[in-house]
Design goal:
Blueprint (H helix, E strand, L loop, with lengths): L6 H20 L4 H18 L5 H34 L2 H12 L3 H19 L4 H12 L4 H13 L5 H14 L6 H56 L9 H14 L35 H4 L1 H15 L1 H7 L4 E5 L2 E2 L5 E2 L2 E7 L5 H18 L8 H31 L2 H13 L7 H12 L2 H19 L3 H15 L4 H10 L6 H28 L1
Antiparallel strand pairs: 1-4, 2-3
Helix pairs in contact: 1-2, 1-16, 1-21, 2-15, 3-6, 3-14, 3-15, 5-6, 5-7, 5-8, 5-9, 5-10, 6-7, 6-20, 7-9, 7-20, 8-18, 9-10, 9-19, 9-21, 12-13, 12-14, 15-20, 16-18, 17-18, 17-19, 17-21, 18-19, 19-21
Length: 536
């Protein structure tokens, strides 16, 4: 690569991201409005300053559109699942049933937003915990904005070793870590350690949202127990089996939530009346429909189906192998910029295996719920069309933003702009760059919407930088992936998943501002811990 890494080129590479941040944070634009403009700026900078030709731009745009369509499949099926439950009035049953089962409202919010969300992340990922979790939190009385933010926070700790360690495997493959080697387990250990730090803070932050110091004091014992199970359990399992190191602790923490709700400390009713995150539901807003004759277990039928189906497909080897035989993607030619930045030809780009994909699990679960609720007459005959129609109409507006953001990230990646951003920082800062290692991981997820993509994009770069700086490489890789996991909270594409299912599309700027205020200090803390551990 002969791209000049100078201040001018660095600034040019940063312009699309800077404009996106200004529009969303300062101007309060929604992603649907901001993303198309930033895409145009990205194309201009790519062609004028990074010497990209039209073939490259079209090729990378095609990759972005394909990735976006896969994301939109998840969005639509998650909204369909929500609409099925809403039509049957199942969320009212879940709200009342969970409140009886877990009388402490703080523990209830932690259970739905943090624990159940991380369980979904452990098996599905791909934004499903946000798309599914936000409506569930709204169902128990959390206001839509906070429901999305809590769902984002809750799923983040499972972003590396969740989805059966897909993001971790991509990092290991990218940097050449041999499975079972000392370096492999060492990098996994550091990753788990840094993620545990975030996990603990994540639980405390949710308590703070609910009722400031009073809620933190009340929830501290529960958060510590949950964090030991989740963060500590994941760290322990990384030294034996990375594939299930998120899934098993998330399952145990769900059981722990029910047991904790039987203790003297959390077994009685607790509620902060003036909690800023709870909806003050007026009579006009209250759903006037009578509660259906439905048990809590029946209300959760689609979610039981989602969990069971995912586990069967992904954990039973022969089933996974059989369903994985069908896979398809598109081929793209080799392209290069005038600076010699080459994108190799790809025979099958980002192939989708439909019967192993999260959208298939969501679709089947939604259909099972629809059939079951119809059979019980909780959904009236002839309402199926309305359910599908509402799901489609809610999905369509977010599609513009998702497509523009993914195309933007692919063009920046394919022209070397993303690499110039990272290289420029290292050249200026030298060893101090170690503090910013997790921020690079966060940037990768912010740009691509995926910790897996962030690890693929920056894993090799982080490894090479660690070698040049002569610092401990496994620890650097751990901070990279932990930063990528935290970055899932500020990823615009994941935020859009939540705002779409929470029906507050256009609020992405407000959410991003809140998310940045949470993630920046903790990412910086991880950077300082890394610097102290390997540089002093």
């Amino acid at each position: 690569m002969n791209i000049p890494t100078n201040l001018f080129m660095w600034i040019i590479a940063a312009v699309p991201i800077a404009v996106l941040m200004i529009l969303m944070l300062k101007m309060q634009w929604g992603a649907t409005k901001a993303a198309p403009l930033c895409l145009i700026i990205t194309v201009i900078t790519a062609m004028l300053f990074y010497k990209a030709d039209i073939k490259l731009v079209l090729s990378e745009s095609g990759k972005g559109v394909w990735n976006a369509l896969i994301i939109m499949l998840i969005v639509w099926t998650a909204i369909l699942l929500y609409q099925v439950g809403s039509e049957a009035n199942a969320f009212a049953v879940i709200r009342d049933g969970m409140r009886r089962l877990i009388p402490n409202e703080l523990v209830l919010i932690l259970s739905m937003g943090w624990i159940f969300g991380s369980f979904l992340q452990g098996i599905t990922g791909f934004g499903v915990p946000v798309a599914v979790g936000a409506p569930l939190l709204i169902g128990i009385g959390v206001s839509p904005m906070w429901a999305v933010l809590i769902s984002l926070i809750g799923q983040a700790w499972g972003n590396t070793f969740g989805t059966l360690a897909a993001a971790w495997d991509s990092l290991a493959m990218t940097v050449g870590l041999e499975e079972g080697s000392e370096a492999y387990f060492s990098a996994a250990f550091w990753t788990g350690l840094f993620i545990w730090i975030w996990n603990l803070f994540g639980g405390l932050i949710i308590c703070w949202f609910y009722g400031k110091w009073h809620a933190v004091k009340k929830g501290l014992p529960a958060v510590v127990i949950f964090s030991i199970i989740q963060g500590g359990g994941e760290l322990l399992f990384t030294q034996f089996n990375t594939t299930i190191s998120c899934f098993i602790p998330s399952c145990i923490s769900m059981i722990a939530a029910l047991l904790i709700s039987r203790t003297r400390l959390y077994g009685s009713q607790f509620k902060i009346e003036e909690s800023p995150i709870m909806e003050n539901v007026s009579e006009e807003k209250t759903d006037k429909r009578p509660l259906p004759d439905m048990t809590l277990g029946q209300a959760f039928i689609p979610y039981f189906c989602l969990s069971g189906l995912t586990l069967i497909v992904l954990l039973i080897g022969p089933v996974k192998q059989f369903l994985g035989k069908i896979s398809f993607g598109f081929s793209f030619p080799e392209t290069s910029t005038g600076y010699g930045y080459v994108n190799p030809a790809i025979e099958c780009f980002s192939p989708i295996t439909p019967f192993q994909h999260a959208s298939m699990f969501l679709l089947v679960s939604a259909l099972v719920g629809l059939i079951y609720y119809k059979k019980k007459v909780w959904i009236e005959r002839g309402q199926e069309k309305a359910v599908f129609s509402r799901a489609f109409s809610m999905t369509l507006p977010s599609g513009i933003a998702v497509i523009c953001l993914t195309v933007m990230s692919k063009i920046m990646d394919g022209t070397g702009q993303t690499t110039v951003l990272a290289n420029g920082i290292t050249e200026v800062l030298g060893e101090v760059f170690v503090i910013l290692v997790p921020f690079v991981g966060l940037l990768g997820t912010f740009m691509t919407g995926s910790n897996m993509s962030s690890n693929i994009l920056f894993g090799g770069f982080q490894m090479e930088t660690a070698r040049l700086l002569d610092v401990y490489q496994p620890a650097v890789l751990g901070a990279q992936s932990a930063g990528g996991a935290i970055g899932s909270i500020v990823s615009p594409s994941k935020i859009i998943l939540g705002t779409t299912t929470a029906n507050i599309l256009g609020s992405e700027g407000k959410l991003l501002r809140k998310a940045l205020a949470i993630t920046m200090p903790i990412t910086l803390l991880i950077g300082f811990i890394l610097y102290i551990a390997i540089c002093i």
